[in-house]
Amino acid sequence: MRGPLLVLFTTLLILSGIVGTALYRSSPGPETIKNFRLGNCHHLADLSTLPPFDTPLTYADISGLPCPGPAALPSHGRGQVLLFWIDGTDLPENIVVGSPWRFALRTERYDAVAITATYGDGSTQHRSARRGSDLRSSLGLRNDLVFSFDARDTQPTALIIRLDNTAIPRLVESARVMTPKWWRFESYVGFLLAGLLSGLLIALIAYNFSLYIMLQLPFLLFYCLWGLGSLIYLLGYTQLIAQVFPELAGAGTKQLNFVAFGIMGIGSLRFASAFVEDGFLSSKSLFLIRVLARVIFVMCVVAALGWIPFGDQIDRLMYALSGVCLLLALSRIILAAFQGSRAAQYYVIGWLLMLVGVFIRILTGVGLMPRTDALDLVFFAGMGAEMLFIALVIADRIRGLRDELEQNRRQRDRYQRLANTDALTGVANRRYFDAEIERLALAACGEKPLGVLMIDIDYFKALNDQFGHDCGDKALRQVASLCEAECRAEDVFARTGGEEFSVLVPGAGAAACRALAERLRAAASRVSLADIVGTADGHDLVEGEKSETESAAHLTVSIGVAVAPDHGSTPQQLMRLADKALYTAKAAGRNRVCVSGDSSVTAPDHASASRTA
Predict the structure, then answer these.
(1) 86 CB contacts (<8 Å, ≥6 apart)?
(2) DSSP H or E segment with residue 360
(3) Which region, left, alpha or beta, applies to residue 556 given φ > 0 means left and ψ of -120 to 50 means alpha?
(4) Tens digit of each residue's pLDDT (9 = 90 or more) over 384-394
(5) Given 55, 225, 336, 351, which is the most exposed site by the fewest CB atoms within 10 A?
(6) How far is the C-alpha of 249 from the C-alpha of 237, rounded, in Å?
């Protein structure tokens, strides 16, 4: 499935390139109007001095108005009118004479824009748009407002531009004149790249958010927040979001971009602090990064509020402080990279792909560099490359975490086995046995039988006293090995005392437990005392203690049995009754099986035992 999709995607890119190249070569490029900021400028606070907004302006309407010039423009103020008068000699004759042409105005934070082109014969062409649905067809990349003008045989004598309710007049940036074909090419290429990058960001956000839902790793959530801020910023910059929500055009888009920039800052820095392995960032560094992330976000929100005095200074201050915060945070992460953090090294490499674009964006924001589409494309290209690279790094980090978790799981299982295993015999210990009897008793709830067998090696103290504890340990290991082999997989065989063993037999009644006990007693009797002691005089053990018919050449065990619910319902009752049955078996002569509540105590078949010996 991937092959055809890749071929289709490549084909679409090639066709897009061919169409874009054809449009580009068939039309001259746009020309920026010379000295746009130095043209005649009028700034008015009283809206009543001008004709209605939809009425074309003439020289008579603006003649006699004070012209303070751009230097005297206020930095901030709502409810104001800004007039620009562009002399016709600044317009490119090869574009505007004899063919349709378009005028692109780059500005932000306005409520309405009106443009009047005046001609030498007294005729005019008037174009206007208000924030909202009127602007949908006029929006271009980077808050460009594009207005179409019909072909005339003469050069316009002037363009009169009226901006109503401007928030920051100084943010009127530039004006361009272009042919319709170039406008289509520019829009085509811009929206194609924006669509591809938006699709990439959406796919990365969706993929990593699904991983976060499954794995609950905090850095995945911060990555999604980072990607969401980048996506919103891209949609705002390209005006794609204004195509869906026209009310965001102009000032709304600018405010949205500031908020998106803040989300990008807090998401990327918090991602870094959570992504770097433990131990490489000190608590002070983590605290500093978190504080700087919040500072960037708060500054961006403040800059998005258009009612703050000195709005353009606030904008520039925001960009400057954001650059400082990023440098401080990156310095800590770079230090962690030099200290050997694999995640920090990858993060720094990913940031290098975008770092140039970020600081170019900051330099243009503070006014140290002219803001152009090419520089902004560097920023967005770096952003897309970085997000994709970091997504690949996340996959590597998750693989490392998975390997680390698997290693921890194996280590934890090993410790668990050690905690639940008797060190001498290798079978379960008393701790594990007690936990299992509680669990099995609770699971049975008195409806299913649960057998408890208690096993004690006969004359074990005498074996230790006469031949030493090494022989006793060897006897314990052999008895445990032989008896455990007789149990089922679901049975629990454990060493619960010095020479005592216990067995949990889920789902078995009294008859089945008695049969198992007999098999265990027979298995234990296969342990040769001569093999344990290392001599042939095993029969000298505990002289006079055994009857003439019993073989003294092998170990023997006594077993007590209790079954729930026949004999008891709680673990404590079962253990007590099985222990009591065990002592009954010992009192009856050892090497016997006794079931709780049963008057009969089974003894070994001595003839058979003699033949076995």
Answers:
(1) 33, 36, 39, 158, 159, 160, 161, 175
(2) helix 342-365
(3) beta
(4) 777 777 777 78
(5) 55
(6) 10
Strand 31-32 and strand 450-457: the pairing is unpaired
Average pLDDT of the chain is 76
Query: Looking at this protein, which amino acid is placed at residue 33?
Result: I
DSSP annotation of 118: E
Euclidean distance between CA atoms 126 and 494, whole angstroms = 96
Give the model's confidence band at 78: pLDDT under 50 very low, under 70 low, under 90 confident, else very high.
low
Take residue 417 and report the two structure tokens written for it: 């086995």
Alpha helices by DSSP H, listed for 47-111, are 59-62, 93-96
Q: What is the C-alpha to C-alpha distance for residues 200 and 219, in angstroms, rounded to an integer?
A: 19
8 Å CB contact between 503 and 519: no
Given a contact cutoff of 8 angstroms between Cβ atoms, the answer to whether 398 and 215 are in contact is: yes
* pTM for the predicted model, two decimal places: 0.59
Q: Which residue has the tokens 């901030």?
A: 76
How many helices, marked H, and strands, marked E, lie in the chain?
18, 15
End-to-end CA distance of the chain: give it in Å, rounded: 72
| Per-residue b or e along 521-550, where b marks 16 or more CB atoms closer than 10 Å to that residue's CB | bbbbbebebeebbeeeebeebeeeebeeeb
561 vs 438: CA distance, rounded Å: 17
User: What burial class does residue 598 get, using C-beta atoms within 10 Å of its C-beta: 0-12 exposed, 13-18 middle, 19+ buried?
Assistant: middle
- The CA distances from residue 39 to 36, 42, 161, 289, in Å, are 6, 10, 11, 46
Instruction: Give tens-digit pLDDT for 230-272.
Output: 888 888 877 778 777 777 766 677 778 888 888 888 888 888 7
Whether the Cβ atoms of residue 376 and residue 356 lie closer than 8 Å to each other = no
What's the CA gap between 524 and 538, in Å, rounded?
Answer: 16
